[in-house]
Amino acid sequence: SKLIVRRLLLLLPLFELFTIMATSASSKLSKAVKQQYMDLPQGDQVQAMYIWIDGTGEGLRCKTRTLDSEPKTIEDLPEWNFDGSSTYQSEGSNSDMYLIPQAMFRDPFRKDPNKLVLCEVLKYNHKPAETNLRQMCKKIMDMVLNQHPWFGMEQEYTLLGTDGHPFGWPSNGFPGPQGPYYCGVGADKAYGRDVVEAHYKACLYAGVKICGTNAEVMPAQWEFQIGPCEGIEMGDHLWIARFLLHRVCEDFGIVASFDPKPIPGNWNGAGCHTNFSTKEMREDGGLKCIEESIERLAKRHQYHIRAYDPKGGLDNARRLTGHHETSNINEFSAGVANRGASIRIPRSVGQEMKGYFEDRRPSANCDPYAVTEALVRTCLLNEEGEEPVKYK
């Protein structure tokens, strides 16, 4: 009996870890029971989940409708509407908002032939809602089609319990200091890999251009990479990848946070490093074009800082301190293989004299439409000054 007691005492810390982790009630519902219904045939009808960005500029909303047949193109999808007064997007007295389908993906939760539909939001007068940044981004991208702008965005995020506490962290304290967690392997180094693997497969099934993933520097923090994507496709694919992450986390009963500095103190923040190139940059001698773009970015630092998080730079001010692999928010810098600079030129690009550069300033909760649009405006349309140019 003494041996049993000793073994129970050894297991007590592990038991406490699992009992204190706050997960949602819905995650505890029987998935086996649910699957009985998910396996039922649905005839020729299709479920189309419409997805849009709400009035915060960060949150995603969704609702589903039935279609009589499988849509093959965007044109096959009807416009829809929703109550904008419940999504921070309109007054209750005039609350109808329009959903305009723009991109379609396979649904990894309901599976084929069901669809996920990314939508733009228009107000009652058919003008873009304030957080609909896609329409202007598309206009800017169309102006530079012949330059074939490619983007790759590295989305960092943090897994949290429903109480806001980082997933896997001790309830009354902190894990060991940063060092062993980046790309780490093992139960004491990688917190929440099940979520990461499920999300990766969901993206592949959906048709999202996910190109990689890894554990990040802070425990419970991860990253996935989207790209290369050309033009407006970058924003579309990143927003759907974020939706899929939220939805996967919902099944596990935990939360994915894109806060740029979820834990204050000596812990890394979360960014969305953005890799950018044009056809000319990718060709022989392209380094000259890269350097010219960096010179333009240096003259427009504050404009980009305002575009790189949804609060005009206030969120990024908590992250861009000059520490923890970041540049100072008030200073512009560039360098080869320098992760403490605003702009990093990969060492291979410096050697091959062509390729791309990485803008390390965008925050994890940035709007990819705003980030990619700002880069094109400054680097390709040669805009100057603190405000974007208004084109007819």
Structural features, described:
Keywords: ATP-binding, Cytoplasm, Ligase, Magnesium, Manganese, Metal-binding, Mitochondrion, Nucleotide-binding, Signal. By secondary structure, this protein is α+β, with helices and mostly antiparallel strands. The chain folds into two domains: 45-131, Glutamine synthetase, N-terminal domain (Ubiquitin-like (UB roll), Roll); 140-381, Creatine Kinase, Chain A, domain 2. The chain contains eleven helices and 13 strands. The chain has helices at 2-20, 31-38, 134-142, 193-206, 233-252, 279-282, 287-298, 301-307, 314-317, 347-352, 368-379; strands at 46-53, 60-67, 80-83, 96-106, 115-122, 150-160, 210-215, 221-230, 255-257, 272-277, 334-336, 343-345, 357-359. The strands form two sheets. Strands 6, 7, 8, 9, 10, 11, 12 and 13 form an eight-stranded mixed sheet that branches. Strands 2-1-5-4-3 form a five-stranded mixed sheet, with helices on one face. The longest helix is centred in the middle third of the chain and has 20 residues, at 233-252. Mean pLDDT is 94; it is low at 14-19.
